[in-house]
Amino acid sequence: MKSPYQITDALLKLVVESLIKQKQDDHYNKLFEYDKKGNSTPFIEFMLEIISASLNGLLQSQSVTLHTEDRIRLFAVKIDKNMFSINL
Q1: What is the model's pLDDT at position 18?
Q2: Phi, then psi, of 68 in degrees rounded to 5
Q3: CA 62 to CA 8: how far, in whole Å?
């Protein structure tokens, strides 16, 4: 069973890549500005905006209610599964 964190990481990566592609001109302009001026601040700010927008979108789309069984399974993944048994 995949950890829900692995799935979230993969989704976040896809969202970030998608937003960069949508704002490709801005992305290249910030890289050009960095290369020309030697100041990475505008590029870093651009990337932080992309990451923030990606996380916000992911959080809005991932609002799932966890039930008792789901929480127990997640807990079992976090600790050694052999420490207790799950009888659901």
Answers
A1: 86
A2: -55, -45
A3: 9
SS3 55: helix
Amino acid, res. 7: I
The answer as to whether 31 is a domain residue is: yes
Asked if the structure places residue 88 within a domain, the reply is: no
53 belongs to a structural domain: yes
pTM summary value = 0.56
Per-10-residue mean pLDDT, the chain, length 88: 59 80 91 89 90 80 72 73 55
* Cα–Cα dist 40/54, whole Å: 21
- The Cα–Cα gap between 49 and 57 comes to 12
User: Phi, psi at residue 76, to the nearest 5°?
Assistant: -65, -35
Count how many residues are written for the chain.
88
